[in-house]
Each structure stands twice: as structure tokens, then as C-alpha cells.
Amino acid sequence: MIIEFRCEREYARQWMSRETLSIDGRDVPVQIEWVPTAQPRPPGLDALFELERVVLHKGKHTGANKLKIVPERTQVRTGTAEVIVDFTGAARDPNCSARLYLRPLFDGIAGENAALAAILAGDLPVIDIVNEIDGSVLDRGHPSGEIAAGLSGALETVMARTLTMVAAILSGRPRIVPQVARPAGNGPRRGPVGHVARGLAVSIAKEIYRLCCYAPHWHIGWRFNDGAGVWQTGDLSGPGWNVLGDPGNHFYADPFPVTWQGRTFVFFEDLDHRVEKGIISAIEFNDAGPVGEVMPVLEEPWHLSYPFLIEDDGELWMIPESSIRGDVALYKCIRFPDKWERYATLLSGLELADVTITRHNGLHYLFGAWRDGTGGYSDSLAIYYADRLLGPWLPHASNPVLIDRASTRPAGNFVTLDDKLWRPVQDCTDGYGAGLALAEVVELSPTAFKQIVRHSLKPGPAWPGRKLHTLNRCGRLEVIDGSRVQPKTSAFASKIPSAVLPARTNPSTAR
Questions:
Q1: How confident is the model over 258-282, as pLDDT tens digits?
Q2: Dihedral of the CA atoms 294, 300, 306, 307 (nearest 10)?
Q3: What is the distance in angstroms between the CA of the first residue and the CA of the last residue of the chain?
Q4: Sequential DSSP letters for 225-246
Q5: At 495, is the pLDDT very low, low, confident or very high (cuts 50, 70, 90)?
Q6: What is the number of other CB atoms lying within 10 angstroms of the CB of residue 48?
Q7: Which tens digit of pLDDT belongs to each residue from 445-471?
Q8: Predicted TM-score of the model (pTM)
Q9: Strands across the sheet with 315-321, in order?
Q10: Which of helix, strand or coil describes residue 326?
Q11: Given the DSSP bridges, would you call strands 242-243 and 394-395 parallel, antiparallel or unpaired?
């Protein structure tokens, strides 16, 4: 198979500098057909991208930066293209002989200008990949923008996820086309100069904030609930939430409670701001709340977070996120709660975040936020299945089964209520970890997947944290997490004699 990208010569971008497209691990040849400009861009756009490269991206090129075309390379053809992917807004040549003609649409409109218009209106567009031969929509997705710094970063993110979708279509795997709501587009539309100026101002403000505060600073909320919990009510009402105290220069996130051998512990990510690396720690709970001290239970040379726990065959297992390592590792509990040994590698050679497993209709299903090396970290859902926990794990027939920033990334354990399977998901519409959603899984098999989001949860009076991105329960104990402003000076307050400090509320019981 030979793929041809149709791109506008005058607006050649770095992301177009490719000779292959990776499809299921195979490098498929790509040739570029440079065509005349169909739609002019706003004046000075490339100069603004260059300014962002220097200021926002610390001198590194992004996929949106201008590409210098080498004339002798533009004439190279490896053969007649079987597939054309047209990134322009120009009409399709009716005499084209390609068997498949794909057109990416951004909020329903073709061409880079449409993607830019959505970004300038304050959001990333919904991406449709259309087969122009018969007009059918082959895939649809909504990218997350947690790493999309500035106008150039947002455009790079959109095009990166567009290529993810194109590769999935060309893999031949069946696609599950979800219903994704398009952004309202009611925000003030800025010109490119205004957008970049605002982006630079926000970047400067963030740097100033980071000088004064630890960012982000997550904290864990907990409560005992004898009645209906979050899953039953669809909100955070009920008994008040307590905050698990932290030392200030560490944050606590991703709480997973478990009762094992007659004792209840909450395991969580424990990140030291001073080294920006997470380990897994735990603290015991009794009927009154946390007891004793936080104890480290698992550390590796690389970052660990999201300590998913599962009981299987009479043993307790943990799958901490280690996507930076490019694998999914299984740890066995040797001594509860503080001794764990790496036992097996379930999957390797992929970035899979926040792995969460459920048993359904006789199979184990493994969910994770998948990233193909580019774009955001929270918008693509991959599922694997196996007869047993140790595998072998096989990919779902339609991976990635969903591309949607609002309902993809796992946010805690699956829950079964009235014979219905539910999963908490991160809603990253307003940024990473900004909110939670509760999704009912109405169809799940090795070849099918469908979920419906039933409830949306945001920070508010019941939980005054600035964000919300994990939900779990063990018996009466419910746990969530969120973020707060944490001045760096607070981390050193404990070193000041208590006589010179004002009285403070105990952080482990503060609301």
C-alpha cells in the first residue's frame, strides 16, 4: 500500500515531513503531493509560530513550524497511491483512481484554516475522517489539549491525533464511530496575534506561579459513608469530605483503597516536588480515619502513579502506571502492605496510562489511555482482553476504541450496580484532571464497545478542590482527589518554631 498526503505547498509544516506512516507497527510508504494554496492563512502566522517556538517551546520545533521543501525530494514517487489523505480544502479530482480518498474535517469543515478557526475560538475541534468517495464518516474523535502550548501546539495536537485516526482506519480494523458533541464555539474569537499574545501571557503567569507554588499539587479526599455514595447519587453530596494531610513538598493522588488480611489501606501516588518523581505509598485506615504514618511501599528508578489493585487467585496484585517505561507491569504483594515484587510484564512497547482491569462475561478486560507517541495523553482508549490475569493479552478488534477527551481516561475501579457495568472516567474537556464522569458500559466484548456517560462531576461546594480526577470506594470508605494551591513556603513552615506560627486547622480533617 502507498499513501499520498495532499498538502498545500505554501504552508508546508514539520508534521508533513515523513516518508512513512506507522500502521500496526509497519512503516507504510507515504508520498507528499504538494498542491497550490486553496485558502490563504492569516498574515504573519508563521512568524507567530516561530515566536512561540522560542518562548513557549524552549527553542524546539513543533509539528506546526514551517517546513523547508527540498525540490529534488518533491518529485520522488514510489508508485501510484492507493490511498489519498487530503489535508486541503480543495475539491477532489473526479479522475482520481485511488481506491480510498480520505478527507479530515475539523468541526465539519476541511482544511487547516478550519482547525485554526476552532482553536482561535477557544477550543480544539472535533475531527471527522470522511471517505469522500461515498461520503461516509469512517472515524470521529475529540483530542485533548493538556500539552498543547499556544496556537502552534494546539495545531500540532490536532494534526497528530488526525494521523492516529488515519492509521487506525488504514489498519483495516473496524472503527467504532462515537457520537461526540462539537464545541459550542461561543467564546470570543481572537486573531492569531491576540491568541499568541494571550498564550504568552498565560505561559508567563504559569512560570511565575511555579516559582511561588508547587504545581500541580494534588490532595486526597476521604469520608465514611453508610448510605448512598457517589455512584448512587451521581454527585458528591452526602457526608463532608476530609483531606488527607501531606507534608507540602509532596502531593498525594490516585487513591485506591483495599481491605486485605483484615486491614484497610489506601494506596496512592506520592510525588516529591523536589525531584518530580512519584512512588507508591500507603496509609492505614480504621473506623475513625487514617492511623499511623504514610509509608512508602513501592519505588522504581522511574515515575510511578495510579496504583490499581486487583485480587486474583488468592493473591493481591498491583499495576502502577509506568507509561514512561513503555510497559504494563504486574507486581505481586509479598508482604502486605509494604513489600511488592515485579512479577510479570503484561504488555510492552506502548504508552498506556492508568491501566484498569475488570472481569466481564468470563474474560478480563484491561482499559488504558493510549498514546501513539504524539498528541495528548488523555484522549485515546485502548482495550485488551485475556482469559486470565497473567495473559496473554490480546488487543480489542477496534483499538483505539474511542478518541474523546471527555470520556476516555480511566479514573478508578469499575463498579457493578444492578447488573450494570460502570466506569469512572476523567473529563479533560477543561484540561487534564478537571472533572469526572460516570459512564455506563452498555456493550463490551473482544469486538464491540459502547459506553454512555450518565453523570458529570465537577469541583464545587461539596468538594472545594480545583480539580477532580479519581474516584474509588472500599466498604464505607470513599476516596477522591483534587488539586489546590500549595505555596512553596508552606513546605518549610514545619521548620519554624511553633511558637511563632498561628494556630492552624489539622490538614487531615480540613474540608
A1: 999 999 999 999 999 999 999 999 9
A2: -70
A3: 59
A4: -SS--HHHHSSS-SSPPEE---
A5: very low
A6: 22
A7: 999 999 999 999 999 888 878 899 999
A8: 0.91
A9: 305-312, 315-321, 327-335, 339-348
A10: coil
A11: unpaired
Q: How remote is the C-alpha of 4 from its chain's centroid?
A: 30
Contact criterion met (CB below 8 Å) for 41 and 115? no
Angstrom distance (rounded) from CA 219 to CA 468: 10
d(CA 460, CA 438): 17
Q: How many CB atoms lie within 10 A of CB 475?
A: 12
Q: How does strand 26-35 pair with strand 3-8?
A: parallel
Percent of the chain exceeding pLDDT 90 equals 75
Q: What does DSSP say about strands 327-335 and 315-321: parallel, antiparallel, or unpaired?
A: antiparallel
Averaged pLDDT, 241-252: 94
Q: Does position 27 have pLDDT exceeding 80, yes or no?
A: yes
Give the closest residue to 246 by CA, choosing from 478, 472, 481.
481
Cα 305 to Cα 298: distance, rounded to the nearest angstrom: 10
CA angle in degrees (0–180, nearest 5) for 69-71-76: 105
Q: Within a 10 A sphere around the Cβ of 268, how many other Cβ atoms?
A: 29
**Residues 6 or more apart in contact with residue 465 via CB below 8 angstroms:** 219, 221, 459, 481, 482, 483, 484
- Contact present, 217 and 484 (Cβ < 8 Å): yes
Whose cell is 519554624? That residue is 496
Cα(335)–Cα(332) distance, integer angstroms: 9
Write down how long the chain is. Answer: 511
In this structure, what are the phi and psi dihedrals at residue 151, rounded to the nearest 5 degrees?
Answer: -65, -45
Question: 379-416: buried (b, 16+ CB within 10 Å) or exposed (e) per residue?
Answer: bbbbbbbbeebebebebbbbbbbbbbbbbbbbbbbbbe
